[in-house]
């Protein structure tokens, strides 16, 4: 299957339950995504408080925000001990600069939401503006709900981009389409999974996630902890 040497990192987003987070830590998931968007069905503060999130010992804790006030993002990041901030809304470069002043040690992931019909030149221009300021990029399927669609976008557009920064891929990723991801010219640094691996919003299907981990890490004899 594809490139046997390619083993992307894995981000599981939309986490809400401590027991599931602990199991994912044991299985070696690289990034744990917590959604701080109150309109999301996976809004983490409906299930965990900031102190509980701060107690999770992991170097890849990602806070997902959508057009939130910079001061609030900074406050939550400090209280929850987040390592990454994922900007999933319409945040501009000035916003990122203000955030970096407040949180110089925190990595910024800038999301680009891609619809089924995309102007590649416009997208290239937008990306080149942000690459200087963001630490990582993330490409997701466009939706009014800001993610969690379970649907892919036209991935062929990614091979037309000349990216200077590593990127995460999100939107409809599953065991069924991992082979096509492995054929990309510029492969994702990490895969971001969410709704395809849930029983219901925020309640992850740990068996499916472990199967996916075994698949992307090319483990023929799984030794998963789940």
UniProtKB/TrEMBL annotation:
EC? 5.3.1.24
Top-rank taxon, per record: Bacteria
The N-(5'phosphoribosyl) anthranilate isomerase (PRAI) domain sits at 11-214
One term of GO molecular function: phosphoribosylanthranilate isomerase activity
Q: Name one Pfam family in it.
A: PRAI
Instruction: Report keywords, A-Z.
Output: Amino-acid biosynthesis, Aromatic amino acid biosynthesis, Isomerase, Tryptophan biosynthesis
Biological process GO terms, please? Answer: L-tryptophan biosynthetic process
Q: In which pathway does it act?
A: Amino-acid biosynthesis; L-tryptophan biosynthesis; L-tryptophan from chorismate: step 3/5
UniProt-listed Gene3D superfamilies: Aldolase class I
Catalytic activity entry: N-(5-phospho-beta-D-ribosyl)anthranilate = 1-(2-carboxyphenylamino)-1-deoxy-D-ribulose 5-phosphate
Family from the record: Belongs to the TrpF family.
**Any idea what this protein is called?**
N-(5'-phosphoribosyl)anthranilate isomerase
Q: Which organism is it from?
A: Elizabethkingia anophelis
**From which lineage does this chain's organism come?**
Bacteria, Pseudomonadati, Bacteroidota, Flavobacteriia, Flavobacteriales
């Amino acid at each position: 299957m594809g490139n046997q040497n390619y083993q992307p990192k894995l981000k599981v987003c939309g986490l809400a339950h401590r027991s599931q987070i602990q199991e994912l830590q044991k299985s070696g998931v690289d990034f744990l995504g917590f959604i701080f968007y109150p309109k999301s069905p996976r809004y983490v503060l409906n299930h965990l408080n900031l102190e509980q999130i701060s107690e999770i010992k992991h170097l890849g804790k990602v806070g997902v925000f959508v057009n939130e006030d910079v001061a609030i993002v900074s406050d939550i990041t400090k209280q929850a001990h987040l390592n990454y901030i994922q900007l999933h809304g319409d945040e501009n470069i000035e916003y990122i600069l203000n955030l970096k002043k407040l949180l110089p040690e925190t990595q910024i992931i800038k999301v680009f939401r891609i619809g089924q019909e995309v102007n590649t030149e416009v997208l290239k221009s937008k990306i080149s503006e942000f690459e200087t300021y963001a630490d990582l990029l993330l490409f997701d399927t466009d939706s009014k709900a800001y993610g969690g669609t379970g649907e892919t976008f036209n991935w062929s557009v990614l091979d037309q981009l000349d990216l200077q920064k590593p990127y995460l891929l999100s939107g409809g990723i599953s065991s069924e389409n991992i082979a096509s991801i492995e054929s990309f010219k510029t492969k994702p640094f990490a895969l971001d999974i969410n709704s395809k691996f849930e029983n219901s919003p925020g309640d992850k299907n740990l068996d499916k996630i472990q199967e996916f981990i075994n698949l992307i890490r090319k483990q023929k004899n799984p030794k998963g902890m789940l």
